[in-house]
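Now for one record:
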Amino acid sequence: YQRRVHGDLCSEYESAAAGLPAQMTSEAHAVRIAEIEKRFVGGEKLVAPGRALVKEGIVTKMCRKGPEKRQFYLFNDVLVYGTPQVGNVFTSQHVLKLSDVHIDPNAKFEGAAGSVLYTIQVNHTQKSFFVQLMSQMEKQQ
């Protein structure tokens, strides 16, 4: 079963935005996004009209070489991730438009030691990968 991310995230974004303080204006979102943008070495511009940060965190991406930590930022229109480096900066920025992303929460990642718990598959027109979350609750969010 696959579900389209963009529609699901719109309602999640609205719910998350409802919990934000009233003073969290579009200007405040732009300032926060500019801070994130500066942390990406050689990355593309992230500040855009109407863009707002929904969620962020470090997630384990299942790579060919093995599991690797990646910093993910979920915005209301794009998913951005990169590789953490010393000094609180990131390299290897990837920006995926949510309108082109599908999530398969039931796909199973089979590692060398067998099935990996709490994984979801992210399918995009340019790439597809698995991420491992910390718990079933985090996976459902």
Notes: Strands lie at 3-4, 53-63, 66-75, 78-85, 89-97, 101-104, 110-111, 114-115, 119-124, 128-132. The chain is about 25% helix and 40% strand.
